[in-house]
Backbone:
């Protein structure tokens, strides 16, 4: 009776510890392989599935080397995750092959489990035998040498489509070139509708620009007369062929006395230049009326000295 009680107590403790261990280890792993024998170079697929309660534990994925036991993992599929409430399932597919014949073992893969409360433990997959076989050789027949490279003779017919394509391309290119050459528009020469600016128009334009600057109105009397006399002297030099820029006022007026055309404007020119000399060199301050008169006289000189163009109306005899 005592021995029975002792055995029954031990049985109860075993069941209790098993229940505790089963409760503590919420994670589980399963693996299966789709072939136990393959030809050299062929592939066997290993499917791994790990499940655990995400609130109760954390799974670390098993390390998987590229080669083991002369076998090779040639592809590691991505790890798919499926959630159902707190339960999480991870799935992965491995492609395994061997290049040497023989009997091998796909080892078990160990997954560390870290519970939220409790001692870490491991779970692991089953190991699987895998037989790698070579192609059966019929030894009853003699061996044959490997044939060398055979040169195949080619003819123009082998390249017919290349030739047709090239001819089509050449024809299309020629058509495009001819089209653009024939339809090329010759640019019409640009004819300026605006006649070129005459010497008088240029000088008058420059005097108008000077007038708009309002130099003497802002106290820049000397600058006003310097620019005015430069415009006037450049005009006289170009219009009357007289070196007006290099001559002093007296020299220019003396030269004008002997110049048939310029002599007509000598008095008007003298009034402008002497007023300008007083402002530039004697530092005199001409009156506003004198500033205006100098500008008006310069314009009058330019307008009145415009060359007269006469047309020859005499008919040839």
Residues:
């Amino acid at each position: 009776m005592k021995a029975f009680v002792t055995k029954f107590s031990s049985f109860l403790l075993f069941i209790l510890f098993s229940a505790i261990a089963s409760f503590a280890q919420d994670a589980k792993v399963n693996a299966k392989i789709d072939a136990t024998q393959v030809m050299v170079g062929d592939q066997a697929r290993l499917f791994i599935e790990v499940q655990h309660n995400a609130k109760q534990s954390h799974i670390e994925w098993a390390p998987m080397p590229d080669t083991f036991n002369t076998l090779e993992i040639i592809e590691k599929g991505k790890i798919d995750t499926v959630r159902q409430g707190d339960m999480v399932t991870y799935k992965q597919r491995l492609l395994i092959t061997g290049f040497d014949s023989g009997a091998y073992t796909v080892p078990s893969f160990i997954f560390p489990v870290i519970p939220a409360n409790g001692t870490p433990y491991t779970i692991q997959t089953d190991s699987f035998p895998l037989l790698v076989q070579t192609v059966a050789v019929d030894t009853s027949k003699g061996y044959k040498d490997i044939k060398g490279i055979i040169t195949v003779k080619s003819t123009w017919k082998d390249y017919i489509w290349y030739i047709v394509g090239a001819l089509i391309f050449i024809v299309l290119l020629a058509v495009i070139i001819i089209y653009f050459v024939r339809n090329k528009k010759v640019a019409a020469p640009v004819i300026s509708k605006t006649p070129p600016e005459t010497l008088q128009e240029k000088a008058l334009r420059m005097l108008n620009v000077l007038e708009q600057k309002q130099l003497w109105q802002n106290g820049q009397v000397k600058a006003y007369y310097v620019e005015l006399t430069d415009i006037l002297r450049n005009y006289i030099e170009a219009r009357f062929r007289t070196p007006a820029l290099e001559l002093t006022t007296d020299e220019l007026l003396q030269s004008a006395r002997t110049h048939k055309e310029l002599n007509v404007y000598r008095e008007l020119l003298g009034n402008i230049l002497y007023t300008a000399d007083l402002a530039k060199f004697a530092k005199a301050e001409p009156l506003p009326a004198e500033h205006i008169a100098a500008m008006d006289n310069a314009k009058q000189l330019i307008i009145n000295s415009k060359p007269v163009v006469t047309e020859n109306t005499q008919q040839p005899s």
Remarks:
- The two ends are 171 Å apart (CA to CA).
